[in-house]
Amino acid sequence: MNATIIKKLQEIVGRDKVLNSQEDRIAYAYDGTQLLSQSPEAIVIPAGPEDISRILELANQEKFQVVPRGSGTGLSGGSIPAENSIILLTNHWNKILEIDQENLTAWVEPGVITGKIHETVEKMGLFYPPDPGSMSICTIGGNVAENAGGLRGLKYGVTKDYVMGIEVILPNGEIARFGGKNVKDVAGYNLKDVFVGSEGTLGIFSKILLKLVPKPQATKTMLALFNAIDHAARTVSDIIAAHIIPATLEFLDQITIQSVEEFAKIGLPVNSKALLLIEVDGHAAQVEEEAQKIIQICKNNDAFRIQIARDDEEAIRLKTARRSAFSALARVKPTTILEDATVPRSQVAPLVVKIQEIAQKYNVMIGNFGHAGDGNLHPTGLTDERDHDEISRVEKAFEEIFRITMEMGGTITGEHGVGIAKKSFLKEWMDPGAFRMMQTFKTMFDPNNILNPGKIFDITPKCEGKLPH
User: Fold this and answer.
1) What per-residue string of b and e applies to 285-296 under the rule 16 or more CB within 10 Å gives b?
2) CB 3.0 to 4.6 Å from 328: which of 87, 260, 405, 462, for a disulfide?
């Protein structure tokens, strides 16, 4: 990128808002995804949507790329720069603009930390359910871009279920708003949902309208430990079959349990083969009734220990067993590759067994945890990127895991997104017509391919005159 473009960017946002020292470029060369990095040409900090409009207009004129970024916690490479690109930061747009208690909505800026939204609305007796594992550091804009899930996804759904409207800057610099506070609105195409989960390839969010719900009156949290993975899996199936939908129904395997106990010291038996974290919420009487039914189901499936939280403090401590899983596993070896694969609930136990078999086949260490209630598992490779032979075996293991996931009727990602990390599998997984339609959407919104290029799929340069098949 030549000095003239840098100067034009400085004229738009101010000299001190364009960072291009070697140290800055290195700092923004990667996100939460392991083994992927690329230095940007510069990091640009816009003051508002108008600045972004001008930056995108300049990008179209000068043919450089723009990669939007919040906290950089993504796990699929979505905010890793492309060649000849700038990083466009939005994490400083961190205001909760409005909480409308009459309509149960909140207008927020994209840089608001998700955990701050939880804390703010819960003080008002309201509830924003999506709770990704990185909620204390991730931004809501990134959540919307990736359609993030979380521990409460089984009962409450994922981010897309709570986005009522967005203000977005399109790749040509135009500012558009989709959706609004109306509970019912079928006027025209539902373009809002096209942008949710688009991974920063179609537009840059400037405001987001979230749906809120009343805060549950009561909750009950428990851990159940098992001597066999299939007992834990059968427990999950039996809970759902009993017409109970817990707010949280999470799974940890033995490697993860051992790592969590070493990390958090919460008294978990390290010889346990599987752990379920279960939380029910709602009206107090219903919560108590469902909790007792779940306890009995766990006993029927040979849980050797069931621990019930006596108060909120203990509930937080028990939930630490799940929320600290990634941090705990990351301490085992220098390189931690956290993946996600989703299958129908009935296939969770077979997939867990297959992952263990694949780990043994390639002689690699893979810890496993995830959202057992909605079929979304997180096999986590524990390795060392300096050991090239082991890294090669880990990559082969994950390739096999994803192909088996697809054979089981699953999908290559349940919440992390495609980004760069899963791009090679997407065309194999998707229907060819649907794949081409996505490419058509991208070229329609962004004909010069300036916004987060190379993510999800590749686009043939415009001069070649056709889309890839």
Assistant:
1) eebeebbebbbe
2) 260
User: Distances in Å between the alpha carbon of 106 and those of 165, 168, 181, 210, 283?
Assistant: 10, 16, 9, 5, 24
Which residue is it, tokens 């759904």?
Answer: 157
Backbone angles phi, psi at 412, to 5 degrees: -75, -15
pLDDT digits (tens, 9 = 90+) for 229-277: 989 999 999 999 999 999 999 999 999 999 999 998 989 999 999 999 9
Query: Where does the chain hold its CATH 3.30.465.10 domain(s)?
Result: 96-214
How is domain 3-89 classified at the architecture level of CATH?
Answer: 2-Layer Sandwich (3.30)
Torsion angle of C-alpha atoms 100, 106, 107, 109, degrees rounded to 10 = 140
d(CA 329, CA 333): 8
Q: What separation in angstroms does the CA of 404 have from each of 396, 399, 438?
A: 12, 9, 25
Please report which residue ranges of 14-139 form alpha helices under DSSP H.
Answer: 22-27, 49-62, 114-122
* pTM assigned to the model: 0.94
CA proximity to 40, closest of 5, 13, 92:
5
Which phi and psi angles does 307 have, rounded to 5°? -115, 125
Q: Where in the chain is the domain with CATH 3.40.462.40?
A: 218-407
Q: How far is residue 28's CA from residue 38's CA, in Å, rounded to a whole number?
A: 8
pLDDT in tens, 154-174: 999 999 999 999 999 999 999
Please name the CATH architecture into which domain 218-407 falls.
3-Layer(aba) Sandwich (3.40)
Whether domain 96-214 has CATH 3.40.50.2000: no
Let me know the angle formed at the C-alpha of 26 by 20 and 31, rounded to the nearest 5 degrees: 115
